[in-house]
Amino acid sequence: MPWTIPNLLLHDGRCRCQTQRSLGFKKVWVYCSNPDCHHNAGLDVEHLPDEVTFNDLQPGMVCTACGHRGADVRTA
Ligand SMILES: [Zn+2]
User: Fold this and answer.
1) Per-residue pLDDT, 10
2) pLDDT tens digits for 30-50?
3) Higher pLDDT, 2 or 70
4) DSSP secondary structure, 41-67, as one string
5) Among residues 32, 14, 19, which one has the least CA distance to residue 69?
6) For residue 67, how far is its CA from the centre of ligand 1 (angstroms)?
7) What pTM does this model have?
8) How far apart are alpha carbons 67 and 69 in whole angstroms?
9) What does the domain layout of the chain look like in residue ranges?
10) How much distance in Å is there from the Cα of 76 to the middle of ligand 1?
11) CA 39–ligand 1 middle distance (angstroms)
């Protein structure tokens, strides 16, 4: 698991993990925001609290490939 849950940040405040799950998504894709890296990985959102949003998660994510802080979270 390249991304740790406490560091994960999701995208926009309206996009809740609960919403993701209700749409059938069990994973989101996390992309390093370092343009020289672009490491990406799937992250399991099944066990995150319903009220956690992409926006909560995104800024605190730390890339395990390059150490960059901050990542993009996408559903596909
Ligand atoms: Zn990176």
Assistant:
1) 47
2) 899 999 998 998 888 888 887
3) 70
4) EEEE-TTS-TT-BHHHHGGG-B-TTT-
5) 32
6) 6
7) 0.64
8) 6
9) 5-75
10) 18
11) 5
